[in-house]
Amino acid sequence: MPELSLQHIDQISRDISREEISFSHLLEDLIDHVCCDVEYEMQRGMDFHEAYKKVKKKMGPGRLKEIQQETLYSVDTNYRNMKNLVKISGVAGTIMFGLAWRRTDDEPWCSVPCLYFPSFSSECALEGDSQ
C-alpha cells in the first residue's frame, strides 16, 4: 500500500496553505482529506504527481475557500442555535421557578427548600400538620 512521503505531505500542506484558509482546524482537516484522496489514487496505480493532479482537478479551483465559507456558516448557525436554546431555557426555568414559588407562597418558610431537597418536603409536611 503506497504511502505519502514527508516531502509529498509538505507539498500538499504548502499548496493548501496558499489558499488562505484562516480556520486552523479546517486547514488541518483539508490537508488530511487531500492526503487520503491522493493515497487512494496511488493505491489504484498512479504515482504521486498524477494522483495529486487528479485530486486537485476533482476539487476544482476555489473549492477550498468555498468549503471554508460553508464551514464557517455552519459553525455560526450552530452557535446561534445554541445561544437561543440557552436563552429559552433560562426564561422557561425562571417562569417555572416563579410558578413553584407562587404555589408554595402560603407557607413561605418551606417554599424554596421543598423544591430542591426532598428531605425538606417531608419536614414541611410534618410541620404544616402540627400547626
Task: Kindly summarize this structure in a few lines.
With 131 residues, the chain is an all-alpha fold. Helices cover 79% and strands 0% of the residues.
Distance between the termini: 84 Å
Estimated share of beta-strand residues: under 5%
Q: Note poorly predicted spans.
A: 126-131
Topology as H/E string?
A: HHHHHH
- As a whole number of angstroms, the C-alpha radius of gyration is 30 Å
SS elements, strand count: 0
* Oligomeric state of the chains in view: single chain
**Count of DSSP helices?**
6
Describe the structure.
There is one protein chain. The chain has 131 residues and is an all-alpha fold. The protein has a domain at 1-61. 79% of the residues lie in helices and 0% in strands. It contains 6 helices and no strands. It has helices spanning 6-17, 24-43, 48-59, 63-103, 111-116, 118-130. Helix 1 (6-17) packs across helix 2 and helix 2 packs across helix 3. The longest helix has 41 residues, at 63-103.
Please outline the helices and strands:
Layout: H1 6-17, H2 24-43, H3 48-59, H4 63-103, H5 111-116, H6 118-130
Provide tags for this entry.
single chain, about 130 residues, mainly alpha, elongated, disordered C terminus
